[in-house]
Specification:
mainly alpha, Rna Polymerase Sigma Factor, Chain: A, single chain, 69% helix, 8 helices, Arc Repressor Mutant, subunit A
């Protein structure tokens, strides 16, 4: 049975939801979803608040015909899209240190790691984040959920309110997009190395 919202004239015995209850139950999910979409740790609280501003404004449109997390996922994607556009206009490419130690990419060096290994691990994480940042948001979200967070396809399907077969199809497309992004990033790095070498040779 669809949920009814506070302030409607629906049957008083029907379950009711408000922004406070949505926040209490789903704030952790929203934070994780925003991270999957590439929101930096330093900006996470602000973007979380932005999501719930939208929830407050639009909650009257939620009729319970879909799962709350499906609805919130769509809001998170739109908020993250706006966030990414603003970052692009500022020409930001956050470093690992700026993003903090996100659970999504648990490859930080240990105290036993040599300086060379630590530098390589940081470079690999920077490369992965650059690749993910270049992907379409929905493809990135599904790719991160399955490949990094190891969320099963049936759970992703339930979360997004789509058939499991559709998740497999979108995951296949996301993997292709990831590989294309890898190729672009590799080409960018090669060009940067070539430019540095030419500048070094010209300075001699």
């Amino acid at each position: 049975m669809p949920l009814h919202l506070v302030g409607t004239t629906a049957d008083a015995r029907a379950p009711r939801i408000d922004v406070v209850s949505v926040h209490e139950e789903h704030a952790d999910f929203v934070c994780l979803t925003l991270q999957r979409f590439g929101v930096r740790d330093v900006d996470l609280e602000d973007q979380l608040q932005e999501v719930f501003v939208v929830v407050h404004r639009r909650l009257h449109t939620f009729d319970g015909s879909s799962r709350m997390r499906t609805w919130l996922f769509g809001i998170c994607m739109r908020v993250a899209a706006g966030y990414r556009k603003r970052a692009f206009r500022r020409h930001e490419r956050p470093s690992i240190d700026e993003r903090g130690g996100e659970d999504l990419f648990d490859t930080l060096p240990t105290t036993e790691t040599s300086p060379e290994e630590a530098a390589l691990a940081k470079e690999q994480r920077e490369r992965l984040l650059a690749i993910l940042d270049s992907m379409d948001l929905e493809a990135r979200g599904i790719f991160v959920m399955f490949e990094i967070d190891e969320v099963p396809c049936d759970e992703i399907a339930e979360m997004l309110g789509i058939p499991t077969g559709t998740v497999y199809s979108r995951l296949h497309a996301a993997r292709k997009a990831f590989q294309a992004a890898v190729a672009r990033e590799d080409a960018r790095l090669r060009n940067e190395r070539t430019a540095r070498r030419l500048r070094s040779e010209g300075a001699r």
